[in-house]
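Intended use. Records like the one below are meant for learning the mapping from a protein sequence to its folded structure. Do not use them to infer anything beyond what is encoded.
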Amino acid sequence: MSRHRLDARRLLCPMPVIRTQDKVKDLAPGDILEVLCSDPGAKADIPAWCRINGHRVVEIEDRGDELRIVIEVGGAQ
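Structure written out for the chain above:
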């Protein structure tokens, strides 16, 4: 298991989800991806994408003007 970070700040919907999807393609099951976003819609969009694609949201931290979403990559990519 390795940890990775994706900076999706200053990107508007749907780009945070698309960038997350693109990054996850390069990761192995069990890897952890920390996504930083400034688009408030990502708080719902990224977890919905994770449910559909078999990944797990470990943590969502709302920092006011920024979100930190931690994802564990699942096996069904």
